[in-house]
């Protein structure tokens, strides 16, 4: 599958002569995906303690989490385009190196600003997942591709769900800086594995890197995501929130016009506007929303005191363990999803996954009074997300040219992040606006939790409707990644 190309060095040409160990490639990319996803939830158990640890306000402390989402959303499509142009393996190495640097910066931080810088660098690492999916397309035999893509795609959910209890244990029993020792070591192991196991990239796009396009996308996305994520604390009608949202939207509109006119765009919007890609990305927003909802709402329900008659009174560690089955199910469902994709197509698997998520949230309306109820709901959501996440890259790659796989998968990852950010903002407003107090303790009311479940079910239902209109077979694309 590899070919001789002029931009390879003598060392890289020599590496191409060695046979590719396909199992090692899949293991390596799945491992790096888990590491990157772990970075997203690394500080989640510490959020309530950050104000005291850093001597800042709760709103300022939240930036250590918010900046990771922003960095992931901005860097992922840029890293994807760089991977298409200069080599996907090379960009995976760069991103893992950034995670290591970010871990070192955060390890030695004792104030908010250095921690934010370190967390931003760690967030950039999430781009290894769409890059890894694109590498699989370039390297693996077609018969093994479906299962491998499903597995690596699922790591986005698995790493976060499994990483939560690990982070909770470290936070509870060790100095919180130990989190960054673990993250740095994991990223270093991933970097060595990629260096040794992943062949150099030979399939690359022609053209140049669109610097202005990258700056425009970064500014526009940051404005929109910042407004959505901080609107609750800034006030939805405040000049800061409105300025971020409107300003970001205007920049993105101008960016889109510029991208359509440039000869070597950061993201080919004509490809992104094709029916399959557009509807898949829109549906991905709903999946990101519904999945993140479970990680926002269920822990609050589990950890709220029982005195109000709403909460379940569990510790942070127990709450994290209750969500772990969700991640394990995603992992277990990846080969099942791959077989369904092969038999019935990625569209069917995608639709089934979102439908299962919707059913899970409907059940949540009636199952919210016992600990095992939350485990059932989290597991049901995990089932659905496992099918959905496994299907998205296959749908995208079947509808885009082979030279656009990394950038297109990166854009899809941004859509999931956008959904997660919207979920955090919307559901946070619902939970904060409907409170009940007993014995001096205030928690969200039972009706607040039920409203969040209804909203999440509606979001998933919208995703099902969008999926219905995805073509069963993509229109012929010249040099498609996964031609029909």
The fraction of residues in strands falls at under 5%
How would you classify the helix and strand content by structural class? mainly alpha
* N- and C-termini, Cα separation: 18 Å
Low-confidence stretches: none
CATH architecture designation of the largest domain: Up-down Bundle
The name CATH uses for the topology of the largest domain is Growth Hormone, Chain: A
List the helices and strands in order.
HHHHHHHHHHHHHHHHHHEEH
**What order do the strands of the largest sheet run in, or round the barrel if closed?**
1-2
Count of all domains? 2
Mean pLDDT: 85
Q: Estimate the global geometry from the Cα principal axes.
A: globular
CATH class of the largest domain: Mainly Alpha
The counted number of beta strands is 2
The main β sheet shows up as: 2 strands, antiparallel
Q: Give the % helix.
A: over 70%
Radius of gyration: 22 Å
Q: Could you state the CATH homologous superfamily of the largest domain?
A: MFS general substrate transporter like domains
- Give the count of helical stretches: 19
In short:
Helix content is 75%, strand content 2%. It has helices at 10-16, 22-41, 50-54, 58-61, 63-86, 88-107, 112-123, 128-139, 142-173, 178-197, 211-234, 239-261, 269-272, 275-303, 316-344, 346-364, 371-397, 405-433, 446-468; strands spanning 435-438, 441-444. Strands 1-2 form a two-stranded antiparallel ribbon.
């Amino acid at each position: 599958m590899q070919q001789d190309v002029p931009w390879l060095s003598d060392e890289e040409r020599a590496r191409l002569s060695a046979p590719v160990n396909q199992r090692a490639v899949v293991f390596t990319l799945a491992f790096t995906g888990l590491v990157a996803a772990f970075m997203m939830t690394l500080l989640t158990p510490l959020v309530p303690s950050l104000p005291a640890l850093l001597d800042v306000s709760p709103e300022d402390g939240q930036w250590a989490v918010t900046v990771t989402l922003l960095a992931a959303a901005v860097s992922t499509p840029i890293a994807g385009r760089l991977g298409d142009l200069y080599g996907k393996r090379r960009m995976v190495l760069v991103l893992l190196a950034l995670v290591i640097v970010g871990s070192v910066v955060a390890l030695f931080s004792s104030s908010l600003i250095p921690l934010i810088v370190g967390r931003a660098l760690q967030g950039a690492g999430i781009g290894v997942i769409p890059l890894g999916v694109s590498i699989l397309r370039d390297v693996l035999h077609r018969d093994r591709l479906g299962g491998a893509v499903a597995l690596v795609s699922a790591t986005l959910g698995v790493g976060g769900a499994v990483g939560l209890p690990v982070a909770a244990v470290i936070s509870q029993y060790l100095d919180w800086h130990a989190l960054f020792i673990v993250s740095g070591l994991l990223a270093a192991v991933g970097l060595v594995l990629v260096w040794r196991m992943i062949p150099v990239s030979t399939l690359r796009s022609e053209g140049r890197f669109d610097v202005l396009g990258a700056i425009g996308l970064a500014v526009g996305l940051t404005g929109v995501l910042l407004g959505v994520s901080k609107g609750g604390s800034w006030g939805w009608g405040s000049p800061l929130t409105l300025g971020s949202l409107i300003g970001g939207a205007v920049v993105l509109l101008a960016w889109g016009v510029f991208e359509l006119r440039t000869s070597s765009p950061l993201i080919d919007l004509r490809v992104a506007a094709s029916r399959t890609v557009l509807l898949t990305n829109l549906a991905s927003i709903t999946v990101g929303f519904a999945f993140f909802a479970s990680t926002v709402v269920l822990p609050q329900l589990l950890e709220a005191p029982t005195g109000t008659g709403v909460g379940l009174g569990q510790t942070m560690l127990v709450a994290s363990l209750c969500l772990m089955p969700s991640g394990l199910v995603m992992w277990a469902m990846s080969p099942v999803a791959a077989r369904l994709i092969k038999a019935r197509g990625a569209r069917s698997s995608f639709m089934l996954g979102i439908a299962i998520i919707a059913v899970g949230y409907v059940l949540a309306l009636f199952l919210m009074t016992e600990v095992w109820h939350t485990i059932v709901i989290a597991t049901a959501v995990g089932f659905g997300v496992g099918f959905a996440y496994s299907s998205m890259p296959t749908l995208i790659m079947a509808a885009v040219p082979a030279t656009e796989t990394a950038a297109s998968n990166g854009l899809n990852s941004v859509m999931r992040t956008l959904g997660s950010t919207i979920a955090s903002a919307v559901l946070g407003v619902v939970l904060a606006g409907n409170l009940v107090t007993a014995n001096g303790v205030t928690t969200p009311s039972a009706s607040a939790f039920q409203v969040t479940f209804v909203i999440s079910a509606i979001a998933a239902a919208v995703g099902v409707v969008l999926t219905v209109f995805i073509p069963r077979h993509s229109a012929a694309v010249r040099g498609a990644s996964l031609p029909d």
